[in-house]
């Protein structure tokens, strides 16, 4: 994989910028990557009355063509970032708006997960909570016994949530139907005798062909899943059929040395009919822990894994990834070591090209060569007030409008 050149590596109040974090999310909105929230044991947020001050309650935007990081508003009355923005779910809803679900409530000193749904606008830098309908038992359970028990997948019309519920001892499926307002929660109840009796945490899901595929996770934080009957590996993936309402294991062909692994806290993105899995912690039989450095691709039609690429260094876990409009898989944040409470977090952006870039994006890359992109970034970084003047001058110089809008 390749590393993007982060233009602002200077210290801000003696902290790196952006603040490295695990438990964050990254989403591609046009030419920008938007990073929301996370947690860092070396960060202390003094502006919130929180039980846990390690929350990185911030929103950052990274422009792919200028290489410029900017921090969005979070603390004014109307733009206040929700306190539970760690271990949340975030997805592009429109080209300028994120859909954000829940997150950890450890900030309140409890082991639960929030159920609140928000829209975040990168244009106005503001949050808006969304009221959803449906009987209360149809929404995901919040009293699940662990704040890392959620995974989500959004297909543009339906948000599917897979919750590891310690109280019921099961994986539970809920869906938020967003095709029309008001948005409505529905619990998808498995057939009698077809439950999945292993409440995973730090797992990931994708939905393909009306099936929910579950990747990674464990029943306890940073420890292997050793309950009797649990037999999930990358070669045998827990799968919930949304039509028949039954759990089963999907058998997948995979290289011999990876057939038995089951990563904790990986990140998974669906691209076409392939699931791309990056990172995760691997628990070995000798009680050692490794980090997965390979980027693994699962063809969900052929049910076959291949090693697609490799992360920088020794890998990472508890990170985030997303698909950009340019066909690149972007990976951000996470833990770079195996000691969760103390290890270094990352604020680097890595990428790998997963599909052929369109002519439009190829043209943009040509326009914003590394040297020219650095010049623009330097001029843009002075202040937002100067950006309008810079854009006006670029237009006078004949710079195309379609490319100018990608700088914002």
Question: How would you describe this protein?
Answer:
Strand 14 (204-208) and strand 15 (211-215) form a beta hairpin. The protein has four helices and 26 strands. With 408 residues, it is mainly β. It folds into two domains: 2-355, Neuraminidase; 370-408, no CATH class. The strands form seven sheets. It has a four-stranded antiparallel β-sheet with strand order 1-26-25-24, with no helix packed on it. The radius of gyration is 21 Å and the shape is globular.
Structure described in brief:
With 408 residues, the chain is mainly beta.
Q: What is the string of SSEs from the N terminus onward?
A: EEEEEEEEEEEEEEEEEEEEEEEEEEHHHH
Major β-sheet strand ordering: 1-26-25-24
Count of DSSP E strands?
A: 26
Termini Cα gap: 26 Å
CATH topology of the largest domain: Neuraminidase
Count up the domains.
Answer: 2
How confident is the prediction overall: mean pLDDT? 86
In oligomeric terms, what are we looking at? single chain
Please state roughly what percent of the residues sit in beta strands, choosing from under 5%, 5-15%, 15-25%, 25-35%, 35-45% or over 45%: 25-35%
Q: Largest sheet at a glance?
A: 4 strands, antiparallel
Structural class: mainly beta
CATH architecture annotation of the largest domain = 6 Propeller
The radius of gyration over CA amounts to: 21 Å
Helix residue percentage: under 10%
What are the segments in which pLDDT stays under 50 over at least 5 consecutive residues?
none
């Amino acid at each position: 994989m390749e590393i993007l050149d982060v233009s602002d590596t200077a210290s801000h109040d003696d902290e790196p910028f952006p603040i490295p974090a695990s438990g964050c999310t990254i989403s591609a909105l046009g030419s920008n990557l938007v990073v929301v929230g996370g947690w860092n044991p070396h960060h202390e947020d003094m502006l919130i009355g929180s039980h846990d001050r390690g929350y990185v309650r911030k929103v950052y935007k990274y422009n792919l063509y200028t290489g410029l990081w900017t921090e969005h508003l979070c603390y004014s009355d109307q733009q206040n970032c929700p306190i539970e923005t760690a271990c949340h779910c975030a997805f592009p809803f429109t080209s300028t708006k994120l859909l954000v679900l829940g997150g950890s409530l450890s900030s309140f000193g409890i082991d639960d997960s929030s159920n609140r749904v928000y829209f975040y606008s990168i244009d106005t830098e503001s949050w808006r909570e969304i009221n959803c309908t449906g009987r209360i038992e149809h929404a995901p359970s919040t009293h699940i016994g662990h704040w890392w028990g959620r995974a989500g997948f959004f297909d543009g019309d339906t948000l599917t949530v897979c919750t590891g519920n310690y109280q019921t001892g099961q994986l539970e499926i809920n869906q938020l139907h967003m095709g029309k307002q008001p948005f409505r929660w529905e619990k998808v109840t498995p057939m009698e005798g077809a439950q999945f009796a292993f409440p995973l945490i730090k797992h990931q899901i994708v939905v393909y062909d009306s099936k929910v595929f579950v990747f990674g996770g464990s029943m306890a934080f940073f420890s292997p899943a050793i309950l009797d009957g649990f037999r999930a590996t990358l070669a045998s993936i827990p799968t919930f059929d949304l039509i028949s309402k039954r759990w089963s294991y999907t058998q997948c062909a995979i290289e011999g040395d990876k057939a038995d692994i089951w990563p904790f806290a990986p990140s998974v993105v669906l691209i076409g009919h392939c699931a791309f899995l990056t990172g995760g912690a691997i628990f070995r039989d000798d009680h050692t822990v490794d980090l997965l450095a390979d980027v693994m691709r699962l063809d969900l039609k052929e049910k076959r894994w291949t090693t697609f690429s490799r992360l920088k260094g020794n890998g990472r876990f508890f990170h985030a990834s997303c698909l950009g409009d340019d066909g690149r898989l972007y990976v951000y944040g996470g833990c770079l070591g195996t000691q969760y409470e103390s290890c270094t977090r990352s604020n680097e952006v890595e990428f790998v090209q997963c599909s052929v870039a369109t002519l439009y994006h190829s043209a943009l890359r040509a326009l914003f060569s590394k040297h020219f992109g650095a010049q623009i970034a330097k001029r843009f970084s002075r202040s937002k007030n100067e950006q309008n003047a810079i854009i006006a001058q670029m237009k006078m110089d004949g710079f195309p409008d379609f490319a100018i809008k990608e700088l914002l």
